[in-house]
TrEMBL record:
Species: Desulfofarcimen acetoxidans (strain ATCC 49208 / DSM 771 / KCTC 5769 / VKM B-1644 / 5575) (Desulfotomaculum acetoxidans)
Record's protein name: histidine kinase
Histidine kinase domain span: 44-259
Keyword check for DNA-binding: no
EC number: 2.7.13.3
One GO CC term, this protein: plasma membrane
Location of this fragment in the whole protein: 219 to 481 of 481
Length: 263
């Protein structure tokens, strides 16, 4: 609005209206942005769910046509169905976590003992490691420290990093879970001797559904690190990544300690 006529009041009114319009425009752009990203998320999620469903349906048809006559085909088709339905349940679980994040759901919080948290994580990680060697140091065994947060989500955060380290490391390679205390922070590092990540991909890997090309065949949904980042944000924690292509990666979670309580 442009007003050149007489009267201060009208000029002020025009100014106020202009300021309001500017804010409305800003709010509209934000809404539009979030609508677009929700739409993209929905499209990506549908696409990711459709792939395993298509494979399952294809295998069921195959079984209907020749399952009885060909026992080998039958075994293979059933294995494919089982694998793809497992992939679908991971995906649905990850989508639910992100839906909770988007809904701004607050997690319940309490004092969490790092000794207990790491013991639980190491116990669960041993079952995920498969043909990769897991070495773990838990410095909190001798002296416990506490953080304030949600124990189950914190365990999930470290397990996402460990699971990735196992997935992207060749059989026989090794993964180290290293814990340290540094300046009011607990540093929990997951170090692998796996494929490594190129410099230009280091930012993108935290985006929803982003997967580096060579990872497409492996199990995984492309959602793990975006969930990990959300959990870290909820705990005022940071995730740092260092990686060299062909040599391995190091993901470090820096988690603020709860200062008042120490053993
Ligand atoms: P995914 O389910 O595909 O593992 P994530 O969000 O956890 O999804 O990771 C995104 C991508 O980042 C992976 O597909 C992989 O390409 C890369 N990545 C994550 N962790 C590692 C790692 N430790 N070593 C090599 N690449 C990794």
């Amino acid at each position: 609005i442009k007003y050149d006529g007489p009267g201060d009041e009208l000029a002020r009114l025009a100014e106020t209206i202009n300021a309001m319009l500017e804010r409305l425009n800003f709010a509209y752009q934000k809404l539009d942005q979030s609508y677009r990203s929700q739409k993209r998320f929905l499209a990506d999620a549908s696409h990711e769910l459709r792939t395993p469903l298509t494979i399952i349906r294809g295998n069921i048809e195959l079984l209907q046509q020749m399952g009885d006559a060909e026992p080998e085909i039958r075994t293979e088709a059933l294995a494919d169905i089982s694998e793809e339905s497992r992939r679908m349940s991971w995906l649905v679980e990850d989508l639910l976590s992100l839906a909770r994040a988007d809904a701004g759901q607050k997690m319940s919080e309490e004092l969490v003992s790092l000794r207990e948290l790491l013991a639980d994580v190491i116990h669960r990680a041993e079952k995920l490691a498969g043909p990769v060697n897991l070495e773990a140091t838990n410095i909190f065994v001798s002296e416990d420290n506490y953080v304030y947060g949600n124990k189950e989500y914190l365990a999930k955060l470290i397990l996402i990093l460990l699971d990735n380290a196992f997935k992207y490391t060749e059989p026989g390679g090794s993964v180290l879970l290293k814990t340290e205390l540094a300046d009011k922070e607990a540093c929990i590092a997951v170090i692998d001797t796996g494929t490594g990540i190129a410099e230009e991909n280091l930012e993108q890997i935290f985006e929803r559904f982003y997967r580096i090309d060579q990872s497409r065949g492996s199990r995984g949904t492309g959602l793990g690190l975006s969930i990990a980042r959300w959990i870290a944000e909820q705990h005022d924690a940071r995730i740092e990544v260092k990686s060299t292509l062909g040599q391995g990666s190091e993901f470090t979670v820096r988690l603020p300690l709860h200062e008042n309580i120490k053993n």
